[in-house]
């Protein structure tokens, strides 16, 4: 049996309807051939649900049972919808509408608005923060920036749960929500916000769904027109639908039941936005004759990873836990998950970066490695650690691949070459499609070897390199293809948001990682207070945190590392402990002797921290006792992690040597330019300030400055000490020369 979640990059279109079913396992085939009536697919992580439902649609289309233009497949992200369109195209089922709920609703709203209301559809506001601020001001309520975001989120929750301003307080209390301000104040702001929108003739993102629902409810002729167009519905990630989205789906369906829903209650992690698994769990009650298929064969993860994933849910409680799926790995055995305890967060970040370098050296692609954390605020320390280690990375949630400036520019260049390439002498030596693409991309900044370090220069190179690799794959799959064919492929991929892989370690929150997978995953900050997060108080909130960890674990195919730190800052009190969700799973914890199908409880590794070239264990109590609290050298206050590099409070006066700092800045700029990388990859601004304040006289003093790790000490230590000693000075042109 072939892996359910993997396919070649450019597979051949199946020759027939029966060929669409080839390679599916028995349960996936059952999904693909259940084309009539209500169908509920309970699909565990990594079990090939997207494969099953796209093959279901394609089989129905190729067999003549479904007409492409009458099928509407809805999901929750543009990326997922784009992936679905791309797979359907590869299966010979182009023309099927695959959209997000909002995209499908907006398309209908724009089409029917002139008929239902008259005139043009009001403008949709990109961000509601300013409107919320104006509404608060109108009610004489002062909100800081954080409160503005939180109140905006409360308004979004109220609208997707179909709660009007007057009912907000009661609804929030019933749902157990902790309002950022008094519920009466939020209700007032919510009401003023709606009034402002009407006065300014604008609508927001949630109004797209609300107005579409309103039109379909009030105008039966329009509802009939929509139902005549769409006869068959597929809903992915059904555990995440909100009451408003379910209402829209009901109106699309009318009195019909040709709907297939796919979901996993154990992956419900967006309840704070109004999502609820109740619709999935109640589907068989609403549709007693529904066909139900369970997908439990995990094609993504090794038995060791699957064993841990099952173990995370083993102690779960609540209704979703009652319907959990026991995954069965279909892959060969892999390494045991590694549990690592560090003395503090900087040590945890350094440890992750070190192990990632080892994985890359062993042959694991940087693009197949991810660091996942609970909150976006944890990202910075890992960005710095990876930059210090010379490891390229990308932040999940950044702009889409085909919207990047360098990709758009490269696309224009490739399109021009396809049209006028016969007059381009630069293409004369190019003998095939890949070499033609490389020749064009070289004019946009691509080189055969990547630039050193990370940052914007490396990011641009990685984007262009992804296009070059895509050209090679395309040429292998399409013999005799030319530049025009490749440009057409890029256009189709851009429309489907089907981006090629960009090389670089992914940094992402656990929520942003949903639906993605990597060969190696580092789950960091798996400690009490972060996982579960401090503000998770109720049993329901705690269980959602458990499910979030489950989602993180199931992102890994082969290598999985879980880590936590005993304190936040170097020298801090080691009061933290590993997450309760790991109890009974990691060695040494309560009940860790229990075993289940799929493998043992995993390995253990002590955390390490690099100090002037030595790697030393930091997990023992003796070592922790030797660490002293870090205090400001100016006022004596205890420092946090962000202030450790300066060894003083941010607002305490600096005793920096300004001249030395200027020389260091000029040296850094010249060094970074020579390496072709951003200046911060040499030393960050704070590290340069710390060096200028300390003015180290020997290697020991320099090595003790936070931010000067072993790699940078070896690379730049002699230059920095020479500048500090005055042996390298500025010349009149702003360069540097050695004194006699």
UniProtKB/TrEMBL annotation:
Keywords, alphabetical:
ATP-binding, DNA damage, DNA repair, DNA-binding, Helicase, Hydrolase, Isomerase, Nucleotide-binding
According to its UniProt record, the EC number is 5.6.2.4
Domain HRDC: residue ranges = 654-734
Q: What class of enzyme is it?
A: isomerase
List of residues binding ATP: 43-50
The cofactor(s) it depends on are:
Mg(2+)
Q: Which residues form the UvrD-like helicase C-terminal domain?
A: 303-558
One GO CC term on file: DNA helicase complex
The yes or no answer to whether the keyword DNA damage is present is yes
Where the record annotates domain UvrD-like helicase ATP-binding, the positions are 22-302
Q: Which GO terms describe its biological process?
A: recombinational repair
GO terms for MF? 3'-5' DNA helicase activity; ATP binding; DNA binding; hydrolase activity
This protein's superkingdom?
Bacteria
Q: Where is the composition biased (Gly residues)?
A: 590-605
Q: Which family does it belong to?
A: Belongs to the helicase family. UvrD subfamily.
Q: Which PANTHER family match?
A: ATP-DEPENDENT DNA HELICASE UVRD2 (PTHR11070:SF69), UVRD / RECB / PCRA DNA HELICASE FAMILY MEMBER (PTHR11070)
Matches recorded under InterPro entries: DExx_box_DNA_helicase_dom_sf, DNA_helicase_UvrD-like_C, DNA_helicase_UvrD/REP, HRDC-like_sf, HRDC_dom, HRDC_dom_sf, P-loop_NTPase, UvrD-like_ATP-bd
- Using the UniProt annotation, give all residue ranges assigned to the region (Disordered): 566-622
Species assigned in the record: Streptomyces xanthii
Q: Reaction(s) catalyzed by this protein?
A: ATP + H2O = ADP + phosphate + H(+); Couples ATP hydrolysis with the unwinding of duplex DNA by translocating in the 3'-5' direction
Put simply, this protein is called ATP-dependent DNA helicase UvrD2
């Amino acid at each position: 049996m072939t892996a359910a979640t993997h396919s070649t990059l450019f597979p051949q279109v199946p020759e027939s309807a029966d060929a669409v079913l080839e390679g599916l396992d028995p349960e996936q085939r059952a999904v693909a051939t259940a084309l009539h009536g209500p169908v509920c697919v309970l699909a565990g992580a990594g079990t090939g649900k997207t494969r099953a439902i796209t093959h279901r649609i394609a089989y129905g289309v190729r067999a003549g049972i479904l007409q492409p233009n009458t099928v509407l497949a809805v999901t929750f992200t543009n990326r997922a919808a784009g992936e679905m369109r791309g797979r359907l195209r590869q299966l010979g089922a182009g023309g099927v509408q695959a959209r997000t709920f909002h995209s499908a609703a907006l398309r209908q709203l724009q089409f029917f608005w002139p008929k239902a209301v008259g005139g043009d559809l009001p403008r949709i506001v990109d961000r509601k923060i300013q409107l919320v601020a104006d509404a608060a001001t109108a009610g004489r309520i002062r909100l800081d920036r954080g409160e503005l975001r939180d109140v905006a989120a409360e308004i979004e929750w109220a609208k997707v749960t179909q709660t009007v301003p007057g009912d907000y307080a009661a609804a929030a209390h019933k749902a157990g929500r902790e309002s950022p301000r008094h519920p009466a104040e939020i209700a007032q702001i919510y009401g003023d916000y709606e009034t402002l929108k009407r006065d300014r003739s604008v609508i927001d993102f949630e109004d797209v769904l609300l107005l579409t629902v309103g039109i379909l409810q009030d105008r039966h002729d329009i509802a009939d027109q929509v139902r005549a167009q769409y006869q068959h519905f597929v809903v992915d990630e059904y555990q995440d639908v909100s009451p408003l989205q379910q209402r829209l789906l009901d109106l699309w369906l009318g009195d019909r039941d040709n709907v297939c829903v796919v979901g996993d209650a154990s992956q419900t992690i967006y309840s704070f936005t109004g999502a609820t698994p109740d619709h999935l769990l109640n589907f068989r009650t609403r549709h007693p004759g529904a066909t139900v298929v369970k997908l439990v064969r995990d094609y993504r993860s090794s038995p060791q990873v699957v064993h841990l994933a099952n173990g995370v849910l083993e102690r779960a409680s609540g209704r979703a836990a009652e319907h959990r799926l026991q995954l069965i790995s279909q892959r060969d055995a892999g390494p045991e998950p590694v549990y690592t305890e560090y003395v503090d967060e900087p040590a945890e970040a350094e440890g992750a970066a070190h192990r990632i370098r080892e994985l890359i050296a062993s042959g694991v692609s940087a693009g197949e490695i991810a660091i996942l954390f609970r909150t976006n605020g944890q990202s910075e320390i890992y960005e710095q650690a990876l930059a210090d280690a010379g490891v390229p990375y990308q932040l999940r949630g950044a702009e889409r691949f085909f919207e990047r400036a360098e990709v758009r520019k490269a696309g224009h260049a490739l399109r021009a070459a396809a049209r006028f390439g016969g007059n381009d002498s630069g293409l004369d030596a190019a003998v095939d499609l890949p070499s033609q693409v490389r020749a064009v991309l070289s004019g946009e900044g691509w080189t055969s070897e990547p630039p050193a370090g990370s940052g914007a220069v490396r990011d641009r190179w990685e984007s262009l390199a992804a296009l070059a690799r895509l050209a090679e794959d395309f040429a292998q799959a399409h013999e005799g293809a030319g530049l025009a064919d490749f440009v057409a492929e890029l256009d189709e991929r851009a429309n489907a948001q089907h981006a090629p892989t960009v090389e670089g370690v992914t940094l992402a929150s656990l929520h942003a990682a949903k639906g993605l997978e990597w060969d190696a995953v580092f789950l960091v900050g798996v400690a009490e207070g972060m996982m579960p997060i401090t503000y998770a108080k109720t049993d329901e909130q705690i269980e959602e945190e458990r499910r979030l960890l489950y989602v993180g674990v199931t992102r890994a195919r082969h290598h999985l590392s879980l880590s936590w730190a005993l304190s936040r800052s170097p020298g801090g009190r080691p009061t933290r402990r590993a997450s309760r969700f790991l109890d009974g799973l990691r060695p040494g914890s309560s009940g860790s002797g229990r075993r289940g199908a799929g493998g043992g409880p995993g390995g253990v590794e002590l955390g390490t921290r690099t100090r002037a070239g030595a790697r030393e264990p930091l997990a023992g109590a003796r070592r922790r006792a030797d660490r002293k609290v870090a205090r400001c050298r100016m006022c004596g206050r205890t420092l946090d992690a962000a202030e450790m590099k300066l060894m003083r409070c941010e607002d305490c006066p600096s005793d920096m040597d300004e001249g030395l700092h200027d020389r260091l800045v000029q040296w850094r700029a010249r060094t970074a330019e020579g390496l072709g990388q951003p200046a911060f990859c040499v030393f960050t601004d704070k590290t340069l300030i710390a060096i200028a304040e300390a003015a180290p006289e020997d290697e020991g003093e320099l090595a003790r400055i936070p931010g000067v790790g072993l790699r940078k000490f070896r690379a730049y230590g002699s230059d920095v000490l020479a500048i500090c000693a005055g042996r390298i000075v500025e010349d009149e042109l702003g360069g540097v020369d050695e004194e006699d």
